[in-house]
TrEMBL record:
This is Glycine/D-amino acid oxidase. The keyword Oxidoreductase applies. GO terms for cellular component: cytoplasm. SUPFAM superfamilies: FAD/NAD(P)-binding domain. The lineage of its organism: Bacteria, Pseudomonadati, Pseudomonadota, Gammaproteobacteria, Pseudomonadales. The keyword Lyase does not apply. Keywords: Oxidoreductase. It comes from Stutzerimonas stutzeri (strain A1501) (Pseudomonas stutzeri). Residues 31-381 form the FAD dependent oxidoreductase domain. Pfam families: DAO (PF01266).
Length: 427
């Protein structure tokens, strides 16, 4: 049965508003039709509306139904692969532009929150936690790399320092990004949707795009209607399915799981994360966690290649949480859910055009809260005739998954097992 509503997550249970938007039931013409109301689609729509375009967003289920309404809520700068691998992949001028944009997404989010008065519990400060010396050296190199791009908000933490910000004895050290941070992700998406509507944009829910008729004026069809547009922006990411076969062939949906505890006693919560920073560790298959506004611990980790939903998320994630915080042994888990992100072989985003008027961005491979906001901005710039930054992203190489779609999941799982083994034995 097709989904009609949000999964039973902590975020759905604590969302600001549950406005129901109508499904598309007739035929319209606009400047831009956006497919998907996650951060990529919402950010694109908002930037386009601010530039004076008419915009319609088609969402298969509800605003923020995908990763954008289910994620760890961590504002992490840069990309899933860092700037050194981007420098090796594209020309020097493109690498410079992409490097400068690595720190723009957090600023866009903060600007949006302030400008449109979005209530999403925004907090500053994110920590990368290292288990061993090798990971500490990696963080030192990352700091030097980011500073080369002018980013000056990082502070290395030794073993003593990290224990002042995370009450866990697992870590050898870490790095604080003062302009990292965290948000209630679904409330950010809902706030952005309201901002879109305040500027005259229209969002249809329960309106999956089922066919895109390409041509001079592409037409996007839903079960009961259609939108003819000058431009189409495809922003369905891991939930797009086979709508655009070229995009499905070079990416793979993967699941990652999250739990939320019952709200913790104020003192216990403060003892775990005294400065209320969010944390992600430095493993390839990483754990990520933070406190919510009502002091639930939101803890995520684990990857399912091919995005099958595991039967019992709590039994996968709770042991990870207790390994980090054994002091939570008697704490109840109130919510457990899974969400899909889109993996690419390079773990870098795929951005481009199909013909002259269908634009897409997908595949931020696990770190997308900031990138998707930048993607919206550069797509809007490109549609307004300034494509330099869009073209820099578009020059990142795209690779098909070896073995085609059939072997995507087993081969990637094999690769992940290798990296996970490396993490465990620390080499
Ligand atoms: C559990 C989890 C935790 C994560 N944690 C973090 C984190 O802490 N920090 C971080 O930086 N990143 C994190 N990520 C990644 C981040 O959430 C994503 O990169 C980002 O939200 C992707 O946004 P998007 O708009 O591209 O895709 P999505 O948010 O998935 O949105 C796509 C939307 O398109 C809709 N759609 C699909 N097909 C169609 C169609 N045919 N017609 C109409 N609509 C369609 C879907 O219903 C969906 O609403 C996490 C991801 C997951 C799954």
């Amino acid at each position: 049965m097709p989904h009609k509503d949000y999964p039973a997550s902590y975020y759905a249970a604590t969302s600001n508003q549950t406005v129901s938007r109508p499904a598309l039931a007739d035929h319209h013409q606009v400047d831009v039709c956006v497919i998907g109301a996650g951060y990529t689609g919402l950010s694109t729509a908002l930037f386009l509306l601010e530039k004076g375009f008419s915009v319609t967003v088609l969402e298969a289920v509800k605003v923020g139904f995908g990763a954008s309404g289910r994620n760890g809520g961590q504002i992490v700068n840069s990309y899933s692969r860092d700037l050194d691998s981007i420098e090796r992949s594209v020309s020097e001028p493109a690498a410079k532009l992409i490097g400068e944009m690595a720190f723009e997404g957090g600023r866009i989010i903060r600007d949006r929150v302030a400008r449109y008065n979005i209530r999403c519990d925004l907090k500053d400060g994110g920590v990368f936690a290292a288990f061993n010396k090798k990971q500490m050296h990696h963080l030192e190199a990352q700091k030097a790399l980011w500073e080369r791009y002018g980013y000056q908000h990082l502070e290395l933490l030794d073993q003593h320092d990290i224990q002042q910000v995370v009450a866990s004895d697992r870590y050898a050290g870490g790095m604080l990004d003062k302009q990292g941070g965290h948000i209630h992700p679904l409330n950010l998406a809902l706030g952005e949707a309201t901002a879109i509507e305040s500027l005259g944009g229209i969002i249809y829910e329960n309106s999956p795009a089922i066919r895109v008729e390409r041509g001079e004026q592409p037409v996007v069809h839903t079960p009961d209607g259609s939108i003819r547009a000058r431009f189409v922006v495809v922003a369905g990411n891991a939930y797009l399915g086979g709508l655009i076969p070229e995009l499905a062939a070079k990416s793979m949906p993967c699941g990652t799981q999250v739990i939320a505890t019952e709200p913790l006693d104020e003192e216990l919560a403060r003892s775990l994360l005294p400065q209320d920073y969010c944390v992600e560790d430095c493993n390839y298959l990483l754990d990520y966690y933070r406190l919510s506004a009502d002091k639930s611990l939101i803890y995520g980790g684990g990857v399912v290649y091919g995005a099958r939903d595991p039967a019992d998320v709590t039994s996968i994630i709770r042991p990870k949480m207790l390994k980090t915080f054994p002091q939570l042994a008697n704490v109840k888990v109130d919510y457990a859910w899974t969400g899909n992100f889109l993996l690419t072989l390079s773990r870098l985003p795929q951005v481009g055009r199909l013909g002259s008027n269908i634009y897409y961005s997908q595949g931020c491979s696990g770190h997308g809260v900031t990138y998707t906001h930048v993607a919206g901005k550069v797509i809007a710039e490109a549609l307004s005739g300034q494509a330099e930054r869009f073209d820099a992203f578009a020059s990142l190489p795209h690779y098909p998954f070896p073995g085609g779609q059939r072997f995507q999941a087993p081969l990637s799982a094999l690769g992940a097992m290798y990296y996970s083994l490396r993490d465990r034995i620390g080499f």
